[in-house]
Amino acid sequence: MFQFLLAVQQRHHTELRSLVKAVRQDVSEPLSTSRTETQSDFTRRSVAETLQNRDTSGQRHFRTETLQDRDTSVQRHFRTETLQNRDTSGQRHFRTETLQNRDTSVQRHFRTETLQNRDTSGQRHFRTETLQYRDTSEQRHFRTETLQDRDTSEQRHFRTETLQYRDTSGQRHFRTETLQDRDTSEQRNFRTETLQDRDTSEQRHFQYT
Questions:
Q1: Which regions are flagged for Basic and acidic residues bias (predicted)?
Q2: Where do the structural domains in the chain lie, given as residue ranges?
């Protein structure tokens, strides 16, 4: 009986890996608007995989991975991947990563990535990173990156970095970068740096440091 259950489990694992491989191959294919979707392609694109591994003895090493791919007439190549790792023994090392990619008729190449790491024992080292990229009919190459690091024990070393790039019909090569570092214990070492570069029809190569 044990050997039979083991054989069934191995067969299901093999089938699941083949489905995941098919989904990843579809995601890696370039976007082609002239391609006709078949029912088998739609079925493969609609595969959702969830892998979960728990160690419930001390509830350490909690990992959840979700992979989803959809292809409809309105939304093509919609992929959402969530990867989570927790160590709930002392609630240290909390990490959540979300990767999202959308390609629709209105929004092409929309990517949002959020990386978060927390140490909730003393609430030190709080870091949030957001990366966003958009390519639409009115906004081409829109990129926003926000990087934040906090030490909330005494609120020292607060750093915020923003990087923005736009290429529109009226604004070409618009770049804004903001770098900020604060030490709020006695409000020493306050530094702000702004870098701006514009290239338009009336203003070319304007740089401010």
A1: 62-80, 135-160, 174-209
A2: 40-208
